Amino acid sequence: MKSLFRSVKNLLSVDMGIDMGTTRTRVFVRGSGVALDEPSFVAVNYRDGETEAVGKEAYKLFGRCPPHLEILKPVERGVIENFELAEAMLNGLLENLFKKKALLGARICVVSPTGATDVEKKAFEDVAIQVGGREVFLVEAPVAAAVGMGLPIDKARGLVCVYLGGGTTQTAVFSEGELMFSVSEPVGGEDLTEAVISGIRKKHRILVGAHTAEQLKTGMGSAYPSDRDETREIYGKSVMDGLPRAQFISNWELREMMEGPLNRIANAIKASLEKAPPDLAADIKRHGLYLCGGTAQLEGMGSLISHVTGLSCSISGNPQHACIQGAEKVSGDMRKYGRFTTTPGSRQFTG
After folding, report:
1. 278 within some domain
2. In sequence order, which residues have a C-beta less than 8 Å from that of residue 11 and are 6 or more positions away?
3. Run of H or E including 27
4. Residue 62, in any domain of the structure
5. Structural domains counted in the chain
6. What is the per-residue pLDDT across 286-325, written as a single tens digit (0 to 9) for each?
7. Does some domain include residue 351?
8. How far is it, in rounded angstroms, from Cα 124 to Cα 210?
9. Host H or E run for residue 36
10. CA angle, 153 as apex, 151 and 156 as ends, to 5°?
11. 196 and 161 in one domain?
């Protein structure tokens, strides 16, 4: 009897949401808000295939892990590339969050990318079920983001929400309670980081890791020209002799390195807007664009997109959490938002 009581005590039923993105995984728990926000990485021991670390603990090992460990990403361009890794990562993160208690009959709202195939959606559902989901439904990232930003998508005409993620740029247009269309392009914050790594290698003949490039991008990167003049010293490995080397990088050359993917992001949004019905043009012009996602935090991103599209841009106060906060709101009011959700087996959630 004591054993049975202990087993039941270690089971947990919750109402939660999961945003498993290319670069970060976020979880909300009803009553606790955003309870988890960690990098989407897994450290695997290639000798036996066992998971050694997940999330921030795995990310710490990136570029400096022992020879027998490999740092892997379960999600690429917004979709699950490796189901087993995704399950291992999510299980590990949730075990840490819930102090080893197992989920039982959880109700889970999962954020999925716009344009995902039925197979890709099913992968998200299956992972949620494997970690303890009993009732699972999906909401597209820009839809969740729009709700998280507090946009009246159930009423207004011609609202445009742009989710700027790590691996994708997703645009959704709403009108009078309907999702008119949504588009996803495979370009995002990770492409900016890779451009910095490549640019430093080509210009200065120095190899730097993702950590260094990411710190440069977020610390002094800019998407649009400004009067600010800043320089930072970085350390890397010389391409010529493999020895450690220091180098000063300025914010203006950093912007030049990122120019290619920045233009791809802005032009992807412009191309998406060109697909909008003509009747919504005036409304879209009046509302402008609402930007969110981690990449929206890059200085000057709104100015760049506004310059390319000719539309005003507004960025939410907490853009990196707009999706997961929206998932929480959607899950809490299915009467209002249920028509924007789906399950892989049907077009619309009806619970």
Report:
1. yes
2. 101, 102, 103, 104
3. strand 24-29
4. yes
5. 3
6. 999 999 999 999 999 999 999 999 999 999 889 999 999 9
7. no
8. 27
9. strand 33-39
10. 95
11. no
